[in-house]
Structure formats: C-alpha cells, structure tokens
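call fold target=RNase H type-1 domain-containing protein
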Amino acid sequence: MEKTVSWKRPSKSWFKFKTDGATRDCSRNFGIEGVLRNDEGSLNCCFPRRLDGDANLAKVLAIREVMTMQLFLWANLLNLIIESDSSNAVTWMNKSKAAPWKPRHLIFQNIVLKGKVADWQIQYTPRIGNR
C-alpha cells in the first residue's frame, strides 16, 4: 500500500520553498528547481537551472539557490521553510560533519548562508510528495 503524501500549507506569514534536483542516467548533467508558495498556496516564484555534477550535489545546490534568493532578492524578509526530498541534504544541513567530503564545501557554504537567513526551517518530504 502506497503512503499518501501531500503538500501542506505553511503557517500564516510563512513561505514554503520546495526544492528538487535530478540527474539523468549516469551523466553529469543535472537540473535543480524550486517553487515558492505562500500560506494560501499561491505560487510566488519558481526557478529552473541546469548544472553539472551528481545527484547529491544537485540537492545541495538547490537548497543553496533558495538561501541565496532569500538573502539577495527578498532582503531576508520571508519566514521560510525549505522542503527537500533528499534526507541526505536535510541531514547534512542540520549536521554538517555528517556530510561526505565531496559536497562538504557546499554544505559549509550553505551553513554560512544559513547563519545570515533570519527565520528558516528545513524539512524532509518523501519523493512521493512531488507528485
């Protein structure tokens, strides 16, 4: 039996940014994307990007993209929930020493950005919630 996972609205005055990163086959080409919705579920912003790397790198870079947008586009005014379907990326953001060496420099960059973002949370949502 398949578990039902659906998008949940953030609390009043919060925004939720759903991130994703994916690779195709064994190539080093991948894409990242994000969708920002407010507490009413309205679409506020989205982004797609194509990059080179692996699947873990894609997930970590998607999170970094959101944090960068938060700081530089919205002047750190949003209460933000970052949602990822990568339990690895979420764990690494909360416990940077658990990150493997390859994406660790990006995790540390994210940690620096994290310290500059006013009010944010990161949470894991299973991939099935992307449907």
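return ok
Residues 14-130 form a domain with the Nucleotidyltransferase; domain 5 fold (CATH 3.30.420.10). The chain has one domain: 14-130.
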